[in-house]
Amino acid sequence: GNSVTQMEGPVTLSEEAFLTINCTYTATGYPSLFWYVQYPGEGLQLLLKATKADDKGSNKGFEATYRKETTSFHLEKGSVQVSDSAVYFCALRNTDKLIFGTGTRLQVFP
Amino acid sequence: SQTIHQWPATLVQPVGSPLSLECTVEGTSNPNLYWYRQAAGRGLQLLFYSVGIGQISSEVPQNLSASRPQDRQFILSSKKLLLSDSGFYLCAWSSQRSSTDTQYFGPGTRLTVL
């Protein structure tokens, strides 16, 4: 079956630190991969996506590369800001449905 | 451009009362529509999805139901709420063109059952 596994949080960083949030997946076929972000009290917003192997999605300084050989889609940012504090969800889609990971809370302190 | 609306934004209901949450999408036609629930501190659980009017697929057995009376309207209902129904309910849409298309989420409804 299809599933997504994310590292458990919370991830606590100081401002300007390097961020990695790990995501691995199990899927049949060739899924598309997504990172969504949820700011406190809000719905989910698409952060970035990649639709085929070796694609790199990027947005707002965040990046993730679709690695088929390791079935991974790790989220990275070189220098986090306090405003990046949120919950980050990794997801895959290869049918009409999105399969989400459990989410990773990021807390950035000044 | 497309927009998705949900209401109400927050709701406090007693156990055993009925529920109706509404979601509407503007600026697109024949979308796929989805209801998710996010319990406190947990991930998202897909509850229902619909590929067309009157077509509803249920992902988990529960006391909730969904209906799609119009192309861009998706309603989540319950006849009798349980305490465990508390959570953050998110509606989403995507186009039916391709499985790579993004799902776009509404602002959510926070439901507290007392």
How does this structure look, described?
The complex is a heterodimer of chains A (110) and B (114). Chain A is globular, with a radius of gyration of 13 Å. In chain A, strand 7 and strand 8 form a beta hairpin. In chain A, 0% of the residues lie in helices and 52% in strands. Chain A contains no helices and twelve strands. Chain A has 110 residues and is mainly β. In chain A, strands 2, 5, 6, 10, 11 and 12 form a six-stranded mixed β-sheet that branches. Chain A has a four-stranded antiparallel β-sheet with strand order 3-9-8-7, with no helix packed on it. A two-stranded antiparallel ribbon of chain A has the order 1-4. Chain B has no helices and eleven strands. Chain B has strands at 3-7, 10-13, 19-26, 32-38, 44-52, 55-58, 64-70, 73-78, 87-94, 104-105, 109-113. In chain B, strands 2, 4, 5, 6, 9, 10 and 11 form a seven-stranded mixed β-sheet that branches. The model of chain B has no long low-confidence stretch (mean pLDDT 90). Classes of the chains: A mainly beta (110), B mainly beta (114). Chains A and B meet through strand 5 and strand 6 of A and strand 5, strand 9 and strand 10 of B.
Shape of chain A: globular
Unreliable runs of chain A: none
What structural class do you assign from the helix and strand content of chain A? mainly beta
Oligomer: heterodimer
Number of strands of chain B: 11
Strand content of chain B: over 45%
Whole-number mean pLDDT of chain B: 90
* Fraction in helix of chain A: under 10%
Q: What does the overall shape of chain B look like? A: globular
**Strand share of the residues of chain A?**
over 45%
Task: Sketch the topology of chain B as an H/E string, one letter per element.
Answer: EEEEEEEEEEE
Question: Could you report the average pLDDT of chain A, rounded to the nearest whole number?
Answer: 93
